[in-house]
Design goal:
Length: 466
């Protein structure tokens, strides 16, 4: 691909502006509430064609037919939410591309200009490297093999560098992740912006006594926290927690993290937890680890993987009280084999036990799968702190287990009189349970009027609630 109006194949700083365009003269307009934006449009190999674009209208940019990468970034930490990008023909006003941006600090898109031989890739012709029509194990192994490598003229698949950074980094892996395990053809996922509500940090255990561990003792006064992502739909899930130099991930405490690392008796991801030792070494149940909705000893624990980038995951990092990912390759923990997981609107992201100080805070970034798996959503710079803890419980005063201290209510937290199966609703299933106990004189859970026997009066009372 060459750039017209110049004899150079690679120019920076508005080199696409020209008066006599033989191919496609286009206008690019970026508008919205963000005060400072910078954008560039580049060849699919990442070579800059038009850079340092800002808010406003840029007219008569001359581009040959082909596929281009459009990269947009907020320059002052403001969200891009509400901004729009429109690319149209300078001559006919035909719109080549329109995108409303979501709640993120940066975004990248493929843009097809004209036709020609260089067309923007589909999901499968970008990622199906072995041509078996399946984005399966072979594809995943290939992408992992390219992770952390630099794009060069001899690179076999330069388009894997979807953010045009010059490296196959964590953001390129995240772009692929929603399609892992799919059979071709596959459509690009839509992007949502309102499914990730935020984070919830719960104080799960305060250890009044010291506990023996496999290698080291967990001292008294230590605290175990559970960190959750709150989602708007129970069919949403988290695909990755990540960080890089653009959006660092930081978990920190004034003390140190217990049992985090690669040494004996320590863990990094949930699949490394071996609960069979808990009875002998009770501190083993409180090591620190990453997860994505999975508890120890549950199925699929091996589906949570770690991508480390340039991070050295050692116990030294944990002892310093900081777990961080801020290098240019980036990393995080990801769902290696995404699978359907219905939640209570809260997804567990990790267990963190701190010792030598109870303060715990951090900043993380999330990739979610939304709309029952058909869409994705990014959220960056999400903060949490032990100074603002969440308490899970029932927040409905009409429930029998109402908790006045609760700040968050996971689905199914409340129990109602007549809701015998505790699914949060009074349905025919509960009615059948009541009938099955008709005549019982020792069934207080079904004795709705508390007269000592399950009778017609209980049935009539139940029917009045439906």
């Amino acid at each position: 691909m060459r750039l017209l109006c110049t004899s150079l194949a690679y120019l920076m700083i508005m080199s696409g502006l020209c008066q006599n365009c033989e191919f496609n003269s286009i206008d690019i307009e970026v508008s919205g509430p963000v005060s400072t934006i910078e954008w560039n449009i580049s060849q699919n190999q990442g070579w800059g064609i038009f850079t340092n674009g800002q808010l406003g209208l840029y007219s008569d940019i001359c581009l040959e037919d082909g596929c281009y990468s459009l990269n947009i970034e907020s320059q002052n930490g403001e969200s891009l939410d509400g901004a729009t990008v429109t690319i149209s023909s300078s001559n006919s006003n035909e719109i080549f591309f329109f995108q409303a941006l979501d709640d993120a600090l940066n975004a990248s898109f493929f843009v097809q200009i004209g036709n020609g031989e260089s067309l923007c890739p589909t999901v499968c012709n970008l990622y199906d490297v072995d041509g078996d029509d399946c984005l399966c194990a072979n594809t995943w192994l290939y992408i992992l093999g390219q992770y952390g490598t630099q794009i060069t003229p001899s690179s076999n698949y330069p388009l894997l560098d979807t953010d045009a950074s010059g490296w196959i980094d964590i953001r390129d892996v995240l772009q692929y992740l929603p399609y892992q395990g799919e059979n071709c053809p596959v459509e690009w996922a839509d992007t949502t912006s309102d499914h990730i509500i935020g984070l919830a940090l719960v104080e799960s255990f305060v250890h009044e006594d010291s506990l023996i561990g496999i290698v080291s003792t967990l001292p008294s006064g230590s605290v175990t926290y559970h960190l959750y992502a709150q989602l708007s739909e129970n069919t949403d899930g988290i695909l990755a927690v990540y960080g890089d130099d653009e959006s660092p991930l930081l978990l920190e405490t004034t003390g140190s993290f217990y049992g985090f690392g690669s040494d004996l008796g320590s863990t990094i991801v949930v699949g490394q937890v071996n609960s069979m030792f808990n009875s002998i070494f009770p501190a083993n149940a409180y090591t620190s680890w990453f997860t994505l909705g999975i508890e120890p000893d549950e199925g699929q624990v091996n589906s949570i993987s770690l991508l480390a980038g340039e991070v050295n995951w050692t116990d030294g990092m944990a002892m310093d009280g900081q777990i961080q990912i801020n290098d240019h390759i980036g990393g995080g923990w990801i769902a290696q084999n995404p699978y359907p997981l219905e939640t209570d609107d809260f997804v567990l992201l990790g267990q963190f036990t701190v010792m030598g100080g109870v303060d715990f805070s951090g900043t993380i970034n999330l990739l979610a799968q939304t709309n029952s798996g058909s869409s994705i959503e990014f959220a960056e710079a999400l903060n949490f702190s032990s100074s603002s803890l969440s308490i899970f419980g029932c927040m409905n005063p009409q429930a029998t287990n109402y908790d006045i201290t609760a700040t968050h209510e996971p689905i199914g937290s409340c129990i109602y009189l007549g809701d015998f199966n505790e699914d949060g609703e009074i349905t025919i299933s509960d009615f059948l349970d009541l009938l099955a106990n008709f005549g019982c004189m020792d069934c207080p859970d079904f004795d709705l009027n508390s007269d000592g026997v399950i009778s017609v009066q209980d049935i009539l009372l139940f029917l009045s609630w439906i």
